[in-house]
Write a structure and sequence with these properties.
Largest sheet: 6 strands, antiparallel
Helix content: 40-55%
Number of helices: 4
Shape: globular
Oligomer: single chain
Order of helices and strands: HHEEEEEEHH
Structural class: alpha+beta
Number of strands: 6
């Protein structure tokens, strides 16, 4: 009989393997701190990658996201933060955000962790079936930036992330 921990570990390994399919050579790019990448697939929303940081345990935090524009603003649909541990060949969801909700996994929130991991695993399946592939071997300047509007969107996205991080820090300080 399979235990809950074995099932969760299996999902974490599946997520890691799917990330490797989506982002070839991911462990090497994480070690180099490659900051940004994007995949464009005809007929589908762009899929973007951001390297957020390496924590004290040597675990990497990345973000994957789709954004659409509404009334001139970028809206996440979704935006997820993911912990990647190449040494153990596992990855798991840390947060989920869309235009309606923000959810962040705290220690002890096993049910939320399981739900977000299941969503992430399905989302990665969908991205792969849509022929997304994020090539981090390209330099940022080489990425296909259609026009000046793209740079403005990136700046707005960075501002969204910075504001979110400041809010999380404030929340942690208040605890």
């Amino acid at each position: 009989m399979t235990t809950k921990n074995e099932t969760q570990n299996s999902i974490n390994k599946n997520i890691y393997q799917k990330l490797l399919q989506l982002i070839p050579n991911l462990p090497e790019h994480l070690a180099q701190g490659k900051e940004y990448g994007k995949s464009q697939s005809d007929g589908f929303m762009d899929l973007s990658y951001d390297f957020l940081h390496e924590d004290k345990k040597g675990e990497y935090i990345i973000a994957l996201h789709h954004y659409f524009e509404m009334n001139g603003d970028l809206v996440p649909d979704p935006d997820m933060e993911i912990r990647v541990i190449p040494e153990k060949e596992i990855a798991n969801a840390l947060s989920f955000q869309n235009q309606i909700i923000y959810q962040h996994v705290e220690e002890g929130t096993v049910h939320l962790q399981n739900d977000l991991n299941e969503f992430l695993e399905q989302w990665l399946d969908n991205a792969l079936s849509q022929a997304h592939k994020i090539d981090l071997s390209k330099e940022r300047e080489e990425l296909n930036h259609d026009d000046e509007m793209e740079s403005e969107k990136e700046i707005e996205l960075k501002n969204i992330r910075d504001n979110k991080e400041r809010g999380e820090e404030r929340f942690a300080q208040e605890r």
